[in-house]
Amino acid sequence: MSDVTLSTLQSLKQSGEKIAMLTCYDATFAHAASQAGVEVLLVGDSLGMVLQGHDSTLPVTVADMAYHVAAVKRGNQGALILVDLPFMAYATTEQCLHNCATLMQAGAHMVKLEGAGWLADPIRLLAERGIPACAHLGLTPQAVNILGGYKVQGRHEAQARQMRADAIALEQAGACMLLLECVPSSLAEEITQAVKIPVIGIGAGSATDGQVLVLHDMLGLALSGRSPKFVKNFMAGQDSIAAAFSAYVQAVKAVTFPAAEHGFSA
Ligand code: KIV
User: What digits encode the pLDDT tens for the residues 102-135?
Assistant: First the structure.
């Protein structure tokens, strides 16, 4: 696969071909996933839970993220590397710019920020400075304490209206991608149609422009032994991790994953 860029992702959206994204935290998995055709490797702050064993993503630092981005970069075979700005790393303009510089210099191609409409200011600033940004809307795990748990977002009409408006405002501010986590499938479909930038979903139904799963979840390695409803174990029936990655890419492209049972109703 030739190197994936923002233009590749934009063309995939325009052509209707779905984008396959997976979280990834090290060189070996980066090599295998990118070889299997995963277009975007997300160095997610979920590493705080799946690698470090915390019960949330809040303890993750910029130094942690930079370490894992650098490892992913060394194994990557042409995928686009997206990295999470961890909790409070973009609380002020200065912190945001400084921490983005650290992560881009470690090997990221794009940064991801969790929030809502208020992300327009930092995203506009980043776009002006040449740093592509993805806005993560819906269930934003860094805000788990204010959300009162890992719950579906956007089920009430006022919340849904706000999320649609935020998505459009963030595109106008210069966001290059949106990620929707745990939102009703119908709302995710409306947002995907309302914006020109690629929209990636997790627990957001099959109508988004692409899908992402946490690596450990899709390999059936959930620490608690219980996975969220939107997860499918792609290791089942496969004899290697490489085969599981290929099965995931094929299922995303063929739109056989996610199935209706993996989504949420309004
Ligand atoms: O940190 C992460 O892995 C994420 C995914 C859940 C989308 O943001």
Answer: 999 999 999 999 999 999 999 999 999 999 999 9
CA of residue 125 to ligand 1 center, whole Å: 23
Residue positions annotated with a catalytic role: 181
pTM of the shown model: 0.98
Measured between alpha carbons, how far is 63 from 66 in angstroms, rounded to an integer? 5
| Ligand 1 midpoint to CA 214 (Å) | 7
The C-alpha angle 221, 84, 240, rounded to 5 degrees, equals 30
| Residues 240 and 230 sit within 8 Å (Cβ to Cβ) | no
Q: Which amino acid is at 65?
A: M
Torsion on CA atoms 258, 261, 263, 266, rounded to nearest 10: 150
Using CA atoms, how far apart are residues 5 and 115, in angstroms rounded to an integer?
A: 24
| 3 state DSSP class of 119 | helix
d(CA 204, CA 265): 9
Measured from the CB, is residue 135 less than 6 Å from ligand 1?
A: no
